[in-house]
Write a structure and sequence with these properties.
Blueprint (H helix, E strand, L loop, with lengths): L2 H25 L2 H19 L6 H25 L5 H30 L5 E6 L2 E7 L6 H15 L3 E7 L1
Parallel strand pairs: 2-3
Antiparallel strand pairs: 1-2
Length: 166
């Protein structure tokens, strides 16, 4: 056996070992995969069945994922060298609008929680604010006024839709 053959054999052996290590890291232990999938299915099932404690968590998660996907798409358009200046300007304007709305939404949610609302989700789109408030009872006129005042002072939006969820 000459040096060339030994080099080829050692290279192939190293590739086999690297492939095995990579496969073990990518696939992971079987027990981890099984528990993760079952817990994710359980959480999704509870949210879909209308588990009252999970509505706000589920809705907030969906909102954040949607915003993240939109922002990533817009950043891709803005950073792409082949995108026209007009499309980059539109994407930049939309990116600014979304990030500003996110800032307003977070500020509104924090302010309303500070006014003793148990949980709140705020969605702003096209100069309209939609607020979901966790409450078992119908909101009083004072509470509705508080919500509208916070939204108007924070975002200058006057078109407000308020809904209660348990």
């Amino acid at each position: 056996m000459n040096k060339k053959q030994a080099g080829v054999i050692l290279t192939l052996l190293a590739l086999i070992i690297c492939t095995g290590i990579l496969a073990a890291k990518v696939n992971g232990p079987i027990t981890d995969v099984g528990t993760t999938d079952l817990s994710a299915l359980k959480n999704l099932k509870e949210a879909k069945e209308g588990n009252k404690n999970d509505y706000f968590t589920y809705a907030r998660s969906e909102k954040e994922q949607k915003d993240l996907r939109t922002i990533q798409t817009l950043k891709g358009i803005i950073d792409d060298k082949n995108t026209s200046k007009e499309n980059k300007d539109k994407a930049t304007a939309e990116f600014t609008k979304i990030t500003t709305n996110q800032k307003y939404e977070n500020s509104i949610e924090i302010s309303l929680k500070g006014k003793n609302f148990e949980d709140v989700i705020c969605l702003i789109d096209n100069n309209q604010a939609r607020v979901f408030v966790k409450s078992k009872e119908k909101l009083t006129q004072k509470q509705i006024s508080q919500i509208q005042e916070v939204i108007t002072s924070t975002s200058q939006i006057k078109d407000v839709i308020i809904e209660t969820k348990e």
